[in-house]
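Aggregate trends can hide what the representation actually does to any particular protein. In the encoding step, the backbone of a single protein was reduced to a row of integers, each denoting a local shape. The record that follows shows the chain in one-letter code together with its fold in token form.

***
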Amino acid sequence: MILDQVQRATRNEKVLVSTSSKVISEARNIHNPREVIAVRNISDNAADIITVNLGFNVAVADNGIVLRQNESFTDNTETGYQAHQGGITAICATANGKLSIFER
């Protein structure tokens, strides 16, 4: 069998998030662009509210994409639009946050 295209690495993982800003996805470059990222708050408790920040700044609670328990955020490349290529950070209102991340 001949492969006619290079398959991109896919990331599927759980990331712990606490009350300090944490990089959850590094910035991408032109040689390895981000095609899609899906982030879901899979925390055990409703108080574990996670804020996601797109960009090079540290995440600040309630200042960005706020994800309550079981809520999600997705960004993907489509015709005429390119998914965010910069770094992505997150912070949780408690020390017990959990994110599920799919990225390609």
The CA atoms of residues 52 and 65 lie 5 Å apart.
